[in-house]
Amino acid sequence: MDVLDHFTELVNKHFITQHEISFYEKELGLKPKYLSKLAKKKNLQPPCQVLLEKQITHGKQLLKQTDKTVKEIAFEMNFEDHFYFSKVFKRKTGQTPTEYRSSLK
């Protein structure tokens, strides 16, 4: 299995509990920054973007499919706090989690 495929597999398994790329590099037995260099060499998204997109996609699903508050979702996804989750969510989607949920109605 290709290293980047293995990385994607690890992200799918650990994205809720592990938010640092260093965790994935350690799991893969790689030196720091090597994963990023490898992705760049293959013209792929940086590992941090792969992880972030997985987190945001999951956050969107929870916002759509549950009545949990943004705070509960952020806590469930192991973000430092719900303000940070909202900031990251807005930076990636252009909407706050609350605005996103409202736009679904």
Question: How would you describe what is shown here?
Answer:
There is one protein chain. Helices cover 70% and strands 0% of the residues. With 105 residues, it is mostly helical. It has a single domain (3-103), classed as Arc Repressor Mutant, subunit A, CATH 1.10.10.60. Helix 1 (3-14) packs across helix 2 (21-28), helix 4 crosses helix 6 (82-93) and helix 5 (70-76) packs across helix 6. The longest helix is centred in the middle third of the chain and has 19 residues, at 47-65. The radius of gyration is 15 Å and the shape is elongated. The termini are far apart.
Encode the helix/strand succession as letters.
Answer: HHHHHHH
Radius of gyration: 15 Å
Assign a percent range to the helix content: 55-70%
- Determine the mean pLDDT: 95
State the end-to-end CA separation.
42 Å
Number of strands: 0
In total, how many domains does the architecture comprise? Answer: 1
Strand percentage lies at: under 5%
User: Could you say what the CATH topology is called?
Assistant: Arc Repressor Mutant, subunit A
Secondary structure: elements and pairs:
Blueprint: H1 3-14, H2 21-28, H3 34-41, H4 47-65, H5 70-76, H6 82-93, H7 97-103
Helix pairs in contact: 1-2, 1-4, 4-6, 4-7, 5-6
Quick summary of this structure?
The protein has 105 residues and is mainly α. It is 70% helix and 0% strand.
List keywords for this structure.
105 residues; mainly alpha; Arc Repressor Mutant, subunit A; 70% helix; elongated
